[in-house]
Design a protein that fits this description.
The structure is a homodimer of 451-residue chains. Chain A has 451 residues and is of the alpha+beta class. Chain A has 18 helices and 16 strands. Chain A has a domain of 92 residues: Anticodon-binding domain (Rossmann fold). In chain A, a hairpin with a 5-residue loop joins β15 and β16. In chain A, α8 runs antiparallel to α13 and α10 runs antiparallel to α11. The interface between A and B is large, with 105 and 106 residues.
């Protein structure tokens, strides 16, 4: 078999990519832990009933289903149509996101969990989407949620967590906030409360088709001229957040109860954040932010990288009843998600990954064989006991070949121990980048590499 | 929906379990990095052709297959039998182990990898085995392999890595070594070279059915009385490894070329390990060790926990041609695997998980509301900036409720800041286990919690 391949839309992550990914996972995980979030992992496969109907018809179609094991011929043959067939031969599917498995877990463990329950989860999800640039059939989600508390301090904490992570990554970002109550209030005000979802879906397209495009689509979707005018006035509001709130009041929207509630929530989140961190730097109000998902009911959050053209690299929001579908109603929650693949792409483009991520191994011991070998074997042990990631080439090949290995793995130092060095109880430490060589004792080398 | 469940044989890993699992992953990963292994992750699903025929008929049956998306009714209806049906409606399956995906990856990337290639991989695998105690349908494997080098130093390094990990875990283990060449030589000697696999499979049962049972099964499998006698003499060899090797020579086996080669390899591994670490402590020769997998050709390794009855908690060995099936022949390699679930079970039974794994959050700030809130919000920020995992209860609920939350999450300290403390610019730090309370400044508390 010479034409080996992997399924389309999936990826192997080789050493270099994995080290960078692991660095991102570690930074994010560390922030989650700092903020008191607890780890959760759920199975790759869930029962079909857990997943279907939760992501719309589209989602149901894009799920990867697991074929039942054993005899399925009879059931397959007697199936009336494609949907019946799928139901008859498959009882499980791969998870489609981390939110539904989380809700399912909370509902199943409601009796033992400490509420408010703060969990983080970093696992792969699978979608049978058509693969294209930046869109994969297997990708990781990194989520943090707090359920069982409607306090707005949770929102402030999640924003602080976001900004901490991106500061650690040296990635310049902007946190965009809005509140679904403001959008719901807008729909109320224009007499289109029942069309909130239609409206938010169209507003969501603003990034792609600009204001004129959105207005055209609203018209096409049979919003009246008067409604369109009010939506346009709303979407045209600009300035810093205080100016925007003033404008909202000026155009009369703030007199709607829902809008007023949304504004109050937004202001409280800003106040709590300021009391915690000392300022509101990096946070903006974006009244055009809609976030398509229906289940958001309060604060909505999106993160944009500032120095590069890229969609959002993170997002989340407040939902009022996520676990109700699993028989555990009225649990308010708020969550955020890190878009790992996009963060990776931005970091890579801006060359932001730290140098030490490039190679984990700090030093390669070159093998000459003979007596030097036992000296090398002792040296490698001492290096590792001192916490220095080290390798020894496993056999006494030509030095050129061993050096090439070090170069290919981008190992920054090699150690050479020939008979002469053995006689002097010394070794040569060579810096592979500068070419500098030092004659050192083992102790001295360990000290040099520790710094 | 009130009867929510997860597929049988799968598990949710809640916070407490995950913290312990993450601790194990971190210790193992850290050792892999110390020894120069590079991270690899492969997709959960592989093309069917990559997996089928690699694990025997049994393996093919136990694979979880992914149903093709889209219209499959026609193909299903026209299928002649169950096997044809499965082929017609499924082109992908979930990975069954990490070894075949690794071999596939090496074959696909042979042109760019630095050989010898040292990779580690820690990912879930899926098998449709009948679930039972300690056997799951989704479980993690943690593998490290070196391919592209037949130097026996690799074996010595992997043994050192094993012992380093278990020393870090405070888990008392024994490394059992054998060499498949000794077993192959034994089969030669008794004129059963063509029945090596049958023989090793039966020898593998020694742990379960003892020597008498194995002898009965050998007889049943039509090994002759003379053959059985020689196998019995071999399996009865005991003592330390030097005594065992002497005995192998005494009963004439060592005159077989293969046996002699196996002995020489074993001795060299021991010598190299001793030169590296200074002794051979914790390593034994176990001539009855067979390890069923056909692809092993040299050293075989198994790890047993010493203070508890449990099967092997790790194992591996040398194989001569793993990537040949993917068109890249003659790549010798050697690998080991950590049995995460079993290591977890042993650690839990012996109570070996360190205390700091129990709770990640070190301190909970109790909320009283009012002016104290802003003091609390500043305090939580300072704690986190100082690297102390900290939480603040999100709303000013009854103190009893907040304390219960701290207890349930096993958070070791709580902080109380009432109006009186605010007036003094102090706070109360309470040790939840001892009940001790200290009146401290914020600075003093941070220092106290850092230690």
């Amino acid at each position: 078999m010479s034409n080996v391949s992997i399924p389309k839309g999936t990826r192997d992550f080789g050493p270099e990519v994995m080290r960078k990914r692991n660095y991102l996972f570690a930074v994010i995980r560390n922030a989650f832990i700092q903020y008191g979030f607890e780890p959760l992992e759920t199975p790759a496969m869930e029962n079909i009933e857990t997943l279907t109907g939760k992501y719309g018809d589209e989602g149901d179609k894009l799920m990867f289903r697991i074929l039942n094991n054993g005899e399925i011929l009879e059931k397959a043959k007697s199936s009336e149509n494609n949907n019946a067939l799928i139901k008859n031969v498959s009882e499980k599917a791969l998870r489609y996101d981390l939110t539904i498995p989380f809700a399912r877990y909370v509902a199943m463990n409601r009796g033992t969990l400490a509420f408010p329950f703060r969990r983080y989860q970093m696992q792969a999800v699978w979608r049978a989407d058509r693969p294209q640039k930046g869109r994969f059939r297997e990708f990781y989600q990194c989520d943090a949620d707090i359920v069982g508390s409607n306090a707005l301090l949770n929102e402030a904490e999640l924003i602080a967590l976001y900004l901490d992570v991106f500061r650690t990554l040296n990635l310049n970002v902007e946190i965009r906030l809005n509140n679904r109550k403001i959008l719901a209030g807008l729909a109320n005000c224009i007499g289109a409360a029942d069309r909130l979802t239609d409206m938010t879906i169209l507003i969501d397209k603003l990034d792609k088709i600009e204001l004129s495009g959105v207005m055209q689509e609203l018209e096409k979707a049979a919003f009246t001229a008067e409604q369109c005018e009010k939506i346009q006035a709303y979407l045209s509001i600009s300035g810093d957040w205080k100016t925007q709130l003033t404008r909202l009041r000026e155009i009369g929207l703030a007199s709607d109860e829902m809008v007023a509630k949304g504004i109050a929530e937004f202001e409280e989140v800003m106040t709590l954040y300021r009391l915690m961190v000392g300022n509101n730097d990096g946070i903006v109000l974006d009244l055009t932010l809609a976030r398509g998902l229906n289940y958001y009911t309060g604060t909505i959050i999106e993160v944009k990288a500032k120095d590069v053209a890229m969609g959002s690299i993170g997002g989340g929001g407040r939902y009022d009843d996520l676990t109700g579908i699993f028989g555990f109603p009225n649990m308010s929650g708020v969550g955020i998600s890190f878009g790992l693949d996009r963060i990776y792409a931005v970091m890579d483009e801006l060359n932001l990954f730290p140098q030490e991520v490039v190679s984990a191994t700090k030093v390669l011991l070159i093998q000459f064989g003979g007596i030097a070998e036992s000296v090398c074997l002792n040296a490698i042990r001492q290096l590792r006991l001192n916490g220095i990631p080290a390798e020894i080439y496993p056999s006494a090949e030509k030095i050129k070949k061993q050096m090439e290995y070090a170069n290919k793995k981008q190992i920054p130092f090699v150690v050479l121990i020939g008979d002469e060095e053995v006689a002097q109880s010394k070794l040569i430490l060579k810096n592979m980048q500068s070419g500098d060589q030092q004659l050192l004792t083992l102790e001295e080398m360990i000290q040099a590499l520790k710094n």
